[in-house]
Model the fold of this input.
Amino acid sequence: MRTEPLKVALLGCGVVGSEVARLMTANAADLAARVGAPLELAGIAVRRPNRTREVPGVDPRLFTTDAEALVKRDDIDLVIEVIGGIEPSRALILAALESGKSVVSANKALLAEEGARLYQAAEKHGADLYYEAAVAGAIPLVRPLRESLVGDRVHRVLGIVNGTTNFILDRMDTTGAGFSEALEEATALGYAEADPTADVEGFDAAAKAAILAGLAFHSRVTASDVYREGITEVTAADIASARAMNSVVKLLAICEVDPVAGKVSARVHPAMIPRSHPLAGVREAYNAVFIESEAAGQLMFYGPGAGGAPTASAVLGDLVAIARNKVTGSRGPGESAYAGLTVRPVGEAKTRYHISLDVDDKPGVLSAVAGIFAEQDVSIATVRQSGRGLDAQLVIVTHLAPDAALTATVARLRALDYVRDVSSVMRVESE
Done:
């Protein structure tokens, strides 16, 4: 075993960073045995030096506000970045990689935007770039895609990758709470940030979908390539419609490949799934992801997708990996973008719609509505009529059709004289 320690710089000491520092200190002997060398926390960069920080076992003298100087120190071997955001994280990670220091990051936004540039810097300077914690907290997803399934062909990645939105939708389904009420509870419990926009508008999930799609299909996919809808428009009527179909509403990240067309599809949006589907049973702030591949078949990964300790677990797993590589003089996997597939617009992606219409109670309504679907070449799977008078309603579920055709159908229905309101529109995932 090597006796000289590997010195680690930690950038950020918030919820995740403080847990990383605590676990590095508490589990130092085990980590050294697993790496083959001691790991020494040599510096912790923070933004606010006067903030009270009590991390058991950590020398307060390790804290510094000069992150750039810490990263560039000649004695630093490895860097952990848990600051988040684009800058200064991008500059700091690039500085580390360009000086040959391997990096562990939990920064999904940066990786989804600048992953290719970071990979190139790591490759050029002989460093590793690991980021298991960027996608789903403690759940191992990145490494299975980069390593375990690298000999297989992945066809589809489908899952719940944001705990905040899953908690909100779960509360709306199980307690009858409205969106605002459920968001308030999520905030009180610490599942939602003071500004929840990144979560509830789907930006967080879209960044994760971009990372997963790039890994799964060996192509460069950025967050801007991912079609995104959040959950702020999900209503009690949508939840009730799902319940009537024995389904639930989840915010799903869906990544698919069409090797014949040479295209990948990556999208994030609310969708109804049957209660019999394993994802329907993912409750509270948990995450779960299905990976479907040619040889391995269908795999499911489940667990806490956020939180200080779970995310720190993933960070330390990556730290051990890059430290081992440093000790043995080897390197982990770099970018795999050889396939170079293009991203398919969401309008070309095939999906199913559930549409609830408040209609006039008169003869010919169903025929007129069916005609709209026929005009757009959208086939109807089921239709249910209910109510009389002002309560008259049609509930329609379509077969698979291009999203653009379904969107056009909904627009035409809104303009139809017989339709008083389109009360609910939701995509449906049945597989």
Notes: The chain is about 35% helix and 25% strand. The CA atoms of residues 160 and 287 lie 5 Å apart. The first strand starts at residue 6 and ends at 11. The chain has a mean pLDDT of 95.
